[in-house]
Amino acid sequence: MEDLTSPKQDKKNQELGEARRPWEEIAASSQDPKSGLSEPLEPEQWLETGPQPRSGPPQSPQSRASPPLDDVTGPGAPSPPSPAPEASFIPSTLALARQQLAAPWQSDRTTDVNPKAETPHSHRLEQSSDQGKSTAPQTCQSEGDIFQQSQQTERHLYGPEDVSNNNSKQKELRFNIFQEEDSNSNYELDHTESGVSEGAPSPLEIAIQSAKAYLLKTSSKSGLNLYDHLSDMLTKVLDERPENAVDIIESISQDVKMAHFRKKLDTLQNENEMLPIYETAEKQKALFLQGNLEGVDQELEDEIAENSLPNVMESAFYFEQAGVGLGTDETYRIFLALKQLTDTHPIQRCRFWGKILGLEMNYIVAEVEFREGEDEEDVEDEDVTEERDDGDSDAEENDEDELPRTFYKTPQVIPKEENRTGANKYVYFVCNEPGGTWVKLPPVTPAQIVTARKIKKFFTGRLETPIVSYPPFPGNESNYLRAQIARISAGTHVSPLGFYQFGEEEGEEEEEVEGRRDSFEENPDFEGIQVIDLVESLSNWVHHVQHILPQGRCNWFNPIQKSEEEEEEEDEEKEEEKEEPEYMEQEVGPPLLTPISEDLEIQNMPPWTTRLSSTLIPQYAIAILRSNLWPGAYAFSNGKDSALTGWASSMEQ
Amino acid sequence: MDAESLLLSLELASGSGQGLSPDRRASLLTSLTLVKRDYRYDRVLFWGRILGLVADYYIAQGLSEDQLAPRKTLYRGRGRKLGNQDPGDVVGSLNCMEWSLLPPATEEMVVQTSVLKGRFMGDPSHEYEHTELQKMSEGEKVFEEEVVVQIKEETRLVSVIDQIDKAVAVIPRGALFKTPFGPIHVNRTFEGLSLSEAKKLSSYFHFKEPVELKNKTLLEKADLDPSLDFMDPLEHDIPKGSWSIQMERGNALVVLRSLLWPGLTFFHAPRTKNYGYIYVGTGEKNIDLPFML
Questions:
Q1: Which residue of B has its CA nearest to A281?
Q2: From start to end residue, where is composition biased (Basic and acidic residues) (chain A) (predicted)?
Q3: Judging by DSSP bridges, how do beta strands B43-50 and B57-63 pair with one another?
Q4: Between the CA of residue A528 and those of A294, A545, A571, what are the distances in Å?
C-alpha cells in the first residue's frame, strides 16, 4: 500500500520546490478533514490503480497530508500503458493549482470553494483548450473534490471512477503541452516522453493563446464571452452532477445564461405571482383564528349546548372509505368555514351539502336550517313583485277592450313554496372557497325548477352570471344553482329504512287530498340494518326529502283556485273545462319515505348502485350508495348506529 | 399519474371530489410495483377508475423508454372472491390484486363501440347486444336484415380508454423532450412551469402523437422549439372552452378539468416537478358540451 503513496510523495518532494511551502500551509490547515477523508479514499483508489513499479524512501509525516491530494489524483493515472507521464502529469497540474490557491487560500475553505474551484478549472481549460474538453473535467473533478470535500464526500469516491475512464493518449498530449507552458514550476520530469524544452514560445503555444483570446472575446449582444460561459457551465455540471449530463448539456447552457438575467427581475416577478397565494393563506388563517374570541369560556359552553354544527370530519372519514372526498385538509377548512357560518348567523342546524365544480371557480354548499322566525327578510320582496305583475295585467286588459280579445291567458304563475316547506325547506349558503364569505342563495321558484329540468349548463363560479339557454331560464346563476340543489336533494337524499319516522301530526285528515306528509323526525328506536342488507336490497333505503312534482313544487298547487274572479264570470262551459284540467293536473308524486327501489330506471340502468366499501374486511365495511342519475351523489351507512348515516353530493357538471 | 408518487398525486387531485379509498390506495401501491417488475415497464401510470354498475375498473398503463410509444393498458376489475382464495396471493385471487392486459385499440373497435351508450357494467365479459340493419344480398334481391351484434365489454373498455387518451391526456410543456434520434425521454431538468405559464392553456400538450402540428404555418413553427414542442397544445381544442383551468390553494396548484370527458383531472404544482392526470368517471363522453358552455 505504501508503494503507491511513496513514489508520488517522492516526486512531489522532488518536483515541487517552491510550491511546497505554500502548499504545506494549506495542508496543515486542512489536515483534519483531509485525513478523515483519506481513509475512504484509499481503498477506492487501490481498486482502480494498478501497482506501480516504483519505490522511494518513506516520507515524513508532515507530507502525509499530501497523499489525499495525490490519492485523489492517483486514479487519474490508472492505465498501465503509460503510467509514468500520467502519474507525474496529475501532480503537476495539482502543483499549479496549489500555487494559484496558495495566496488566496483562507481559513474558511468552504465559502471560497466555488470561486477557487473555478480558477483551476479555467486554468485547465486554458491548457487543454485545443485538446478538447473531455479531459479537463476529469482533472477538474479531482481538483473540485479536494476543495469541496466537506460537502460532498461521495464525489471523492465518484471522481476516481470517472477519471479512470480517461483516454490515456489525450493525457499524454496534454502533458506535453503543459510542459511547454509551465514556466513557473521548476519540476523536472524524469519520465517525460517528449523532449520539448522550455524557452521560446512555439507555434503551438501561439495557437493556444490565440484560441484563448478568441474564447475571451465578448459578445456584442449579450456581454458574455464563451470562455466564462463554458467555465460557468462546467462548474454547474460538476456541482450538480446530473445523470447523463451530455444529453442535457444544452438545457444546462440555457439555464446558465438565464441565471445571469434572473437576478435583476427577480423581485418584481415574485411579488405578482405570489400574491394570490398569500391572500388565500391570509383568509384561511382568519378561519383558524376565529376561535380566539373574547369571552372564550362562555362561548364554549354555548357551543356545546347548541350543537348545530355537524361532525364533518367524521362524515368525511366514512366518505373516504367510499373513495369520495376532498382531501383531509380541504375538508378541515370547510369544517372551519361552516363553523364561521354558524357563528355569524342564527342557525338551528347546518350540514355540509357538497361541492359543485365550476368553470372558473367552485362552490361549496352548506345546507342550513334557520331558527324559528329568523329568515323573514326575503318574503316581502317577493310579494312586491307579485303585486306589480297584477297591476300590469290590469292595464293590459283595458287596452284590449278595443282590440279583439285574445282568449289566451298566460298560465298562472305558480307561486313558490313558503320557506321551510317543500323545496324551500332548507336555506343554502355557498362560498367559493373555505375562508371566503358565505352568500345566501335565494329561495327557488317552481318555474325555475321546471326550466332547470330542461337545460343543462355548466356553472362558471360567479353567482351573477346570466344563464343563456333555451328555454330561457328565469334568473341568473344563483337561481340556477339553487334549482339544481333542490333537484339533487329531492332525488338523492336517502336514509336507511326506519331511521326516520313520521312524526305525529295534528291535521292529518285535512291533508289527505294531497296525500303528503311533510315532516319526519329521527326514530329513537332505530336499531340499524345490517350492512349486507343495505347493499343487497334497495328497498332498505328511503328518500327523506320530498319529491318535486313536474309542476316544480313539492306540494301541489292548484292554479285554478286563485282565479276566482273568472269563475264567477264564466259560464258552466268554462267550469267544465276547468274541472277537467283540475282533475288531470293533480300531480302526485311518491310520498315521503318511499323506498328507493321504486325509483324509475334510467335508460335500462338501475338508478342506484350499491357497494360495500371494502371486501377484504367486511366486518367493518360500510354500505355505499351511489346515484346513477346524479353522478357524484353518494350516501353511506354504517348500519349499526343511526347517527352515522350521511350523504353528500359533489356534482361534476 | 406516476405510480411512484401515487399518494402525493392523489392528494393533489382530490379537489374533484373523487379519489380512492384507503384500502384501494394501499392495494394499488403494492400491486403497481409488482406490475412494473413483472412486465418490465419503465414507468407505470395509474390511469384512473371507470365506474360501472356492478363493479369498477381500475386502469393502469405501462410506458417503455420511449414515452410516446403505444402504451400498454392493464385493468383490474373488482372481482368477487372465489371460494377459499388467500387474499394475499397475487396470482390466484381475482380480488383486487390481479391485473390483466388489454389488447391495443384498433380503429374498427372504436367504430364498433361508438354505438354503445350507457354505463359500463363492470363485468368484462358482459356482452352488449346491438341490433344493426345490414344489407344482405341474396342473388338479385337486396334486403335489409336485422343482425344482432354482440360486443364485449372489454372491447368497449379498450376503445373508451383509447379515446380518452387521445382526446384529453395532458402533459405540461417541457416535461418530455425529443432527441434527434427519435425516442422521447422524460426531461430530468424539468423544474415545473412558472406561474404565468401555468395559467395558459398553451403550455399544456396532448399526450399523443401530434396531429395538427404539421398544419401550422411557418411563422408559428418558427417560434417552436423542436425538442420541446412536438405535441399538440390544448389551446386550439374544439370546442373552445372545453377545458376548465383553475388555481387552487391560491396559486399553489393548477387544476385542469376536461369538460368533454367529465371526470378527467390534470393537476400540476407550478415550479415543482409534480404533475399528473387521473380519470375517475363513468366513461361517457359529454356530447352536450356545446350546449352547456
A1: B250
A2: 8-24, 118-127
A3: antiparallel
A4: 43, 20, 59
Query: Is a pLDDT exceeding 60 seen at residue A271?
Result: no
Band of pLDDT at residue A553, cut at 50, 70 and 90: confident
Per DSSP bridges, beta strands B43-50 and B275-281 are parallel
Residues of B in contact with A242 (CB under 8 A): 188-189
C-alpha grid cell for residue B94?
381475482
Q: How far is B249 from chain A (nearest CA, A)?
A: 7
Residue B142 distance to chain A (closest CA, Å) = 34
Which range among A97-106, A409-418, B61-70 has the greatest average pLDDT? B61-70
Chain A residues with beta carbon closer than 8 angstroms to that of B262: 631, 652-653
Instruction: Return the higher-pLDDT residue of A78 and B87.
Output: A78
Contact call for A616 and B95, based on CB within 8 A: yes
Q: Inform me whether the C-beta atom of residue A460 falls under 8 Å from chain B C-beta atoms.
A: no
CA distance A138 to chain B (A): 23
> Which residues, 6+ apart, have CB-to-CB distance to A148 below 8 Å?
A110, A113, A114, A117, A155
Task: Write out pLDDT tens, residues A179-198.
Answer: 444 444 444 444 443 444 44
Spatial separation of the C-alpha atoms in residues A652 and B258, rounded to whole Å: 11
Q: How far is B129 from chain A (nearest CA, A)?
A: 13
- The average confidence (pLDDT) of chain A is 61
pLDDT digit string, tens, across residues A104-117: 444 444 444 444 44
Task: List CB contacts of B64: < 8 A, sequence separation 6 or more.
Answer: B41, B42
Closest CA to B201 of B143, B157, B242, B261: B242
State whether B195 and A273 contact (CB < 8 Å).
yes
CA distance A305 to A378: 29
For residue B246, give the nearest of A278, A360, A615 by CB distance: A360
**CA A624 – CA A612 distance, rounded (Å):** 6
What's the grid cell of residue B221?
413553427
What residues of chain A lie within 8 A of the CB of B81, using their CB? 615
- Cβ atoms of B219 and B235 within 8 Å: the answer is no
E-strand ranges in A446-587 read: 494-496, 500-502, 520-522, 541-543
pLDDT given at position A50: 41
Q: Which residues of A378-398 are buried (b: 16+ CB within 10 A; e: fewer)?
A: eeeeeeeeeeeeeeeeeeeee
Question: Nearest CA to A76 among A100, A119, A115, A41?
Answer: A41
- CA distance, residue B140 to nearest chain A CA (Å): 40
Decide the pairing of beta strands B264-268 and B275-281.
antiparallel
- Cβ distance A252 to B189 less than 8 Å, yes or no, reads yes
Task: Of B280, B292, B285, give the one whose Cα is nearest residue B113.
Answer: B285
The confidence score (pLDDT) of residue A572 equals 41
State the Cα–Cα distance between residues A541 and A525, nearest whole angstrom.
Answer: 17
Q: Which residues sit opposite A595 in a β-bridge?
A: A542
Task: For residues A213 and A225, give the distance between their C-alpha atoms in angstroms, rounded to a whole number.
Answer: 10
**Of the candidates A607, A327, A484, the residue with the CA atom closest to the CA atom of residue B18:** A327
Interacting residues of B32 by C-beta distance below 8 A, sequence separation 6+: B3, B6, B44, B46, B60
The answer to whether residue A579 neighbours chain B at the CB level (below 8 Å) is no
Buried-state track A117-131, b at ≥16 Cβ within 10 A, e below 16: bbebbbbbbbbbbee
A273 and B292 within 8 Å at the Cβ level: the answer is no
End-to-end CA distance of chain B: 28
Q: Which residue of B has its CA nearest to A354?
A: B17
- 10 Å CB burial of residue A185 (0-12, 13-18, 19+) is middle
- Rounded to the nearest integer, the mean pLDDT of chain B is 76
CA B97/CA B145 separation, integer angstroms: 45
Among chain A residues, CA nearest to B253: A277
